[in-house]
Amino acid sequence: KIPKSLLGIGKEHWLKWTEFAEMGGHGHGHHEPYTIPDYKIFKVADVPELVAVEKALAAQGLKDPWLRNEVWRYNVKEWGTEKARGRLIFFRGFKYGFAAFLVTIAGTALYDKIYPSDHGHGSHDHSSDH
């Protein structure tokens, strides 16, 4: 059944869209489709930091209806701490990058040893030509 919101796009486009969605959106066809978690599993009451924000807002007569969207950030078991996520972002490829750096330095040193160069410090006579 085609949803009413998509009735204007034409059946052939709808079929292509459903095939795309069933394949996980990547066109490969070998991944499980992504399932969006139910919003009810994210509860502000489970996060003391967000409860404090909610109370501070309530004291001023305000309410943040989107506060629930921040709950995932405080699930340390699944996402780690903010510090751990930061380390992951900045140091994810560090060991491979550092290894490549060492190989480059060693390769440059070996090349310079095999093919020595005077680096422009040869025996040029600069005494009377100028």
From TrEMBL:
Localization of this protein: Mitochondrion inner membrane
Transmembrane regions: 93-111
InterPro entries (UniProt xref): NDUFB3
GO cellular component, one term: mitochondrial inner membrane
GO BP, sorted A to Z: electron transport chain; mitochondrial respiratory chain complex I assembly
Keywords from the named record: Electron transport, Membrane, Mitochondrion, Mitochondrion inner membrane, Respiratory chain, Transmembrane, Transmembrane helix, Transport, Ubiquinone
Record keyword Electron transport present: yes
Any Pfam family: NDUF_B12
Coiled-coil region: none
Entry superkingdom: Eukaryota
Topology with respect to the bilayer: Single-pass membrane protein
Biological role: Accessory subunit of the mitochondrial membrane respiratory chain NADH dehydrogenase (Complex I), that is believed not to be involved in catalysis. Complex I functions in the transfer of electrons from NADH to the respiratory chain. The immediate electron acceptor for the enzyme is believed to be ubiquinone.
Similarity field: Belongs to the complex I NDUFB3 subunit family.
Name of the protein: NADH dehydrogenase [ubiquinone] 1 beta subcomplex subunit 3
Gene name linked to the record: NDUB3
